[in-house]
Specification:
It contains 9 helices and 17 strands. The chain is of the alpha/beta class. A 6-stranded mixed beta sheet has the order 3-1-7-6-9-10, with helices on one face. Strand 12, helix 4 and strand 13 form a beta-alpha-beta unit. The longest helix is centred in the last third of the chain and has 22 residues.
Amino acid sequence: MVRLIKISGDSQRRRRGNRVGQRNFAVILCGVLLSAALAFQARAQSLLSPADTETWSHLLDGTAGAERLECVIEPRKPFLDFTFRFTAGFVVRCPWKEFGGKESTALFLIRVTPEGQPPVLLASRYRLRAMPPQLLAGTDIRKVKTEVDASGAFAVGAGRYVVEVLVRDNRYRVCRKRWTIKASGREQGKVPAALKANSIEPLPIHLWDGRSASSGKGLRLTVLLDAAPINSHATKLRAWDQLFLLDSLSSLLEQVPCQSVRLIAFNLEQQREIFRQERFDPSDFDGLQQAFHDLELGTVSARILQQGQAGVDFLAGLSNQEVIADPPADAVIFLGPSSRVARKIPKEALKPRETSAPQFFYFEYIPPWLRGREFPDTIAYLTKARDGTVAKIHSPSELAQAIQKMLKQAKTAEEDKGPA
């Protein structure tokens, strides 16, 4: 099990009373494994005492002569997420052979120091399950090339920070890295800041509370959530990707008055649904999060890669289900990052409409670094083929604008139906 432990700083910060909360910090660590023999899970956070803080700080600083653990720690640059926070993070990669196929534990220590402010610490503990005996027998573990890795993310305000990460296993071997991050960008001046400069906060997932669907009035909504990484060249759904998907879904549902929500999460490259709930409500976020954790984007089979057109057929099938649904949704919304799959949809793959419902929309998130280099992906082609609307989203404010335009279109369509 993974134990997440939040450490709130030193005595100087404790004297500042309610300002402590502005600098508290938490990491969501998400294990993504290439083998079903291993598993990571997260537990709740707990605040440590000042004495524990001093002990853990000493451990972070006192490992100069320790044996090296052959792992790699890769920093990730901060980016503005859909809740107006800068999200920074890292990935830790370790060869499976480092642990000899045996059950092991690893301690993660993370220290973040804002410019001109005291440092903040977090600790977490991982358990790696042993390789099953039937797999270990006859296997030369030294030749196994599989990696085990984990990603972490935290929220910061604008400013500069020093980040230090130390990994220590139960054999007292260590791997560490220190780097500097700067949170800034042109989008910062266009949206209200969620965090003060040089501050750190916990990174909880902002989840929809279900209020917009509690009245029984509004739109019948279907959300087709593309469970893909923000970086189209990435092969795994990292902690920040999962947070982005959950936050953008929550933002959408909070702003759309709906009487019902059907949610289907899918992965286009694997050409499969990973989660479906006909009447989605806040209690279903746990199942959706678990589906994200279980998704292994790096294991697309050779059969799927050889099929070529199958990704098109899979998407066409999702839209066909919505066209023949009884009753149909008022609006079908594709939501997610721009896909690297860019094939057009043949007309013969689409079932013809019998009514004007549902209307199709695609809220396509395009990372800022791709602005000006945007090309239609397969979901955009499908949406256009269904006479739908594609909204290119680069920022939180553009998502809000796209949702309002969608509501106006949906309202117009409802008025055009006239009285029942």
